[in-house]
Structures
1.
Amino acid sequence: MFFSPLPPQQQDVRSLAAFRILAGTYILYDIITRLQHGRLSLLYYTSTPANASFFHPNDTPHKSPIHQIWFYRGSEMFQILLFTLTFLLALSFSLGYKCNVTTKTCLWLNIVAMQCRCMAVHDGSDSYFRHLLLWSIFLPLERVWSVDAWMMRNRRGKYETRGEGNGTKEEARGGEEEEVINNVASCYILEKELTIEALAIRLQIVLMYLGTVMNRTVDPYGYNPIRMFQQCKWLPPQLTAVHYALSGSLATRDIWLGNMVRTNPSISKIMTLAAMMIEGLAPILCLFVKENHVYIPQFALFQLHLGLFVLMNLPNWQMVGMIATTIFTPCWVWDKVQLKLALLYPNTFRQPGPVSLKKKDLAMGEESKSIKSTKKKRLLKPITYFLFGYMLYDFAGNRNWIRKIDSGDIGEGIRFSQFWVMYEGPPTTTSQVMLTGSLPNIEGDGVEEVNIWHWMKHNGDIQRINMTYFKTNDEIWTNFTHVYPDARIERAMNGWRMDIYRTKHFLRGMCQVTPFTEISFTMQHLRILPPGSAQRYTRTASDVETRVTC
């Protein structure tokens, strides 16, 4: 049978190891991109001094005392120390060095704090990733392909060598062969059935996609199917969501493929339907199809995020989505890869099988039997069951299927909310922000306007821009995403575009750390035209300009 009534797959620890390596590498990438503009990036995360920080100290949605401590921003030096600590923990996590419950918990705490210190650049991928990282605390990510596993095998080898000096090889092992053989099946597989920890991280992936699909379809229309199919842009007969997503100014790449989809309604409709089918069905199939076929929905999910990575400037979302699919990689895939590598490089790789597993993972049986490890598992089990239950409870509560006793406070307290809105109903209006600064011209008898986005993106390179021309000629800026220095800054600008108080504070902070004599924040409001239109936008209002003298 293709389906099974219960999650049938076994969790291969090689899939967990691949997830660990990719997730750790992603954290390193995320930290580097968050700080890629040096001090101009760091000041998004500080609160002192207030006049030089891009956000006022009180400008945060996290008002509870525990969050005030956990997400404290402070000075530039304090932020440098926090980012350095997070970077080192992520590097250790990726390599599998000292990758235990304590270090994984510290990494999760630091990642959550890093994300929540600046909510303006935060998006749904950050929430999704920290949830996966939380579940990884309870999983043996370090069992293979890690420094810890290599060191454990070396220590075991030295122990065997000392034992051989005092007696026969069989005596040195002390009857451990039987124990190892019994543990062969669990060296690469956690259990014959999914453990609660492995099931939890898989179910977390499913709930994210399921919640997203429901937020687009069921939630806005009150479980009214007629109204839902009449008005929802993600469902037939409209199927216009991809058109509006690629026609908006937020995160749309300026490439020929995007232009082709945008100008061909039939292609955009097919892509909308395909995206909804993959997001709605593939994660559930990954959980319930048998192991021989799980690669089909897994590859569909991976392909979806790869396609979105090409079309849209949302790198974090797509990277996290692709990394998460590695969790579902079945055992036979790794066995085939390992066999091919062993045939190509017999001196480096061993063929999969009981003999190689017995030698390679001898330390794993020993580690799993240790009293210390058993005590830790007993302590973690109640926490795992509580989080598993709360995940289901919070998801159901957010859907109004049950009444939430705690109003979601526990989930918000540990940043574990199950409210998923990954690209909900695409808007029919959009806006874009140009940041310009004034500098004395070369002749010294006037000033010239400079594109600050270009100045940041190209390390101080001057690009002059005539904003008077744009205002006089009622010019509409198109393909604007590539103008921003990076995707997170674009997200921030779109998030606070209507907040004049925050905008002015940001501009005053920019004045403190840039050479400009005046900085202007100019915003265009546009309406996205429907599929088949000759133009992409029409204006909905005049340009709005906020100006601060430095």
Note: DSSP finds 26 helices and five strands in the chain.
2.
Amino acid sequence: MAFAELLEQVGSLGRFQIFQIVSLVIPIMCLTTHNLLENFTAAIPPHRCWVPLLDNASASALVARGLGPDALLRVSIPLDKHQKPESCRRFLHPQWQLLELNESAPNASGAGTEPCLDGWVYDRSDFTSTIVSKWDMVCDWQFLKPMAQSIYMAGIMTGAVICGPVSDRFGRRLVLSWCYLQMAISGTCCAAVPNFSLYCCLRFLSAFAVAGIMMNTGTLLMEWTKTQARARVMTINALGFSFGQALLSGIAYAIRDWCILQLAVSLPFFLFFLSSWWLAESARWLIITGKMDRGLHELKKVARMNGKKDIRDTLTIEVRSGAGPMSWTSFPVRAAAWGRAGVGNLLSDIFLVQVLFGAIDMPNKMGAFFAMNRLGRRLTQAGSLILAGLCILANTMVPQELQTLRTTLAVLGIGFVGSAFTCLVVYCSELFPTVLRMTAVGGGQTTARLGSILGPLVRLLGQFNPLLPLIIYGAVPVVSGLAALLLPETLNLPLPDTIQDIPNLSTKSPLLSSPLSLPPQPRAFSMHRILWIWSERT
């Protein structure tokens, strides 16, 4: 395609592209910390009811009589089925008979209990403070945590719906800069909120910005990279998410207070906002939307940065009008499972779990890069999703006692989802034309986030049947993987710029070959076609 040839002339993988990759992927690493932040800021610490004998200063007289904290806890809090203190109930009155050592001593089976009317006491050995301990989101109020997660996902979905068309209208860089600023302000304010409702509102705004950053970052990288290097560049972008997981684990290990942790991952976005004004707008988008002068300016800047001084500083642009049938290909529902059902409970050390998932994510994404270039986008996307779903479904048949095997399957499932994500960001951008790329990517993000919104709520079904969440989380990627086989192959094809370019795609892949016949549409779509003539100095 003409623009691809022009990109080769100004430098398709030079100093400019390296600078751009570094400038865009570093914020992606920090962005990942926000996506996974509530693994730590909303961690549920061990807790029990507040009881006067233990938590009131006047109880010191009893302690002086030789009764230690363990004894006072025994007479104040009933035991659960695992013989551990209840988290949500306390005795109406101290059960002193439980301190008798002989076997004939009466038990507390008939003793009256009540909810934690005076609040809770939290174990602060792992986290000094979380939003759970701040707003008592336990027992009858435990639904607030998945509600907060669903509100965050709703923010990403809303951001995808709005940021896509806005980016196609006003440009990629402008929306990206705005989202950096919005993330910085909302994330920073989130650390100082006085109540849960305001916290959810600010998290919604942060999630809105997350969608804009993810979509515009990927699109800018794709539209400034030559065809042969797109998979490589987008794999680097996807690896930014993997490094971000490990980065979050290290930061959270050092900072155990949720407010300070929230600030630590939000303040850098002020720097990203300032640095974003040095980024180049997509010349492909500028030219296609008729902003010729700005497009030429960006191309000249890239040529200078890549050392192409022997290229003339003039471009001759011939604009022709053409008409062709408008076609639309729907992207299937993206797998929203991400193996999240009970993953955090597979190992007791949440910091180790986060590092483990980040470590397994990296080789899987590298494997996806080689598979995309060898097997094609379509088979890589379908295979990754199906394998991810099968790993999660296999966990339904593994007994709880085999924790090592369960952890292995869960980690493999997460790894294959990472492979699917790597392929998805490349595939989705290659399927849609420049004039509608961000709108289409936003539509795909919206569909995916519908599942993400339901994800935390589906986990609550485990209260009725522990296997039910895993079955749902595993079935969705399998169905999505099968649906992906219906998509056209885009391996080694140039990015489509106009809707007329879409019929050039086919369902051919290196292993399977079948033409894609697009149904005729009732209306036509007129679009400027750009012919570039770039000549060297004579």
Note: The beta strands are 47-49, 89-91, 113-115, 120-122, 316-325, 524-533.
